[in-house]
Amino acid sequence: MGTVVKRGKTFRAQVRRHGISRSATFDTKASAYAWVEQVERDIDAGASGDTVAPAGATFATLLEHYRDQVSESKRGKRWEVARIHRTLRDPIAEVPLARLAQPAVVAWRDRRLKQVSPASVQREWNLLSHACSLAVREWHWLVENPFTGVRRPPPTPPRDRLATEAELGRILLTLSYQPGLRPSTISQRIGAAAVFAVETGMRAGEIAKLTWADVAPTVATVRSGKTAAATRRVPLSPVAQTVLSGLKPDPVDLTARVFDLATSQLDSLWRKAKKHAMIEDLHFHDLRHTAVTRLAKKLPILDLARMIGHKDLRMLQI
């Protein structure tokens, strides 16, 4: 039997039946009880769809639904799906939705902190909590978000790693790349992308998506999102122009990607090159920080913010 509890001037109705949880708020007690009776009839009759969780649903069921219905349309789909699949291998995935509560989240958090950094747990936390919030607000699969009220992992200090000239030289040697020479291998294109990142401060994803239609002689247009507000123009230094001249085909297909790389290739091959060059703890994204540090000595902070794409000037305080 469902329950109806008075809260101030409203009545909160809740039904938990056969592993399915739903709740709603009403102005009158009679309408709350009428809703409870209807929901119980629907569940007993085997009603299904987005507004009722499947019978016997677990947290894995919720995450798979989120993956297929929400992650599918996101720009960060690849990373969300990877994190969801990782969570599907954790014991929390087997917890029935009717028993998914704070203790299960605490146990998951403590397990993950033994395996990965607090920053990684924070990223996974944001994804899982968002899935639970949708399950509460839109799908009515959960009564409350079990991540609410649980202590998050401690925040990690901002990353402050810069690439030195010696490190850049070693990794470019490993990748067999020299600016101005036409890359003939994927490793050399990774080297070209690295030099371009240091010169422009562009992100790996922005570099990978850059097409020849986005490139003018002295400026590149970066499209970070779907709106004009997310587009910015990045000046090209002489070194950046030299990198591009070595990549430019003849004839030019304006729809073709400049570096002919996927972000997954950039990530994996950079890791391998870094290892072969015996360089510790240098991420490809650190090249952006290296670029910002160098450019801050040459550009006014507002010009630097426009070039890098930061709206919060505090992020550029070096």
Helix content: 40-55%
Q: Which stretches are poorly predicted, pLDDT < 50 over at least 5 residues? A: none
CATH architect. name of the largest domain? Orthogonal Bundle
Number of helices: 12
Descriptive report:
With 318 residues, the protein is mainly alpha-helical. The protein has three domains: 3-44, no CATH class; 59-137; 165-316, Intergrase catalytic core (hpI Integrase, Chain A), CATH 1.10.443. The chain has twelve helices and five strands. The protein has helices at residues 29-44, 59-69, 77-88, 102-113, 118-137, 165-174, 186-200, 204-209, 238-247, 263-276, 286-295, 301-308; strands at 3-7, 10-17, 20-26, 219-223, 231-235. The strands form two sheets. A three-stranded antiparallel beta sheet has the order 1-2-3, covered by helices on one side. The protein has a two-stranded antiparallel sheet with strand order 4-5. The longest helix is centred in the middle third of the chain and has 20 residues, at 118-137. The radius of gyration is 26 Å and the shape is elongated. The mean pLDDT is 85.
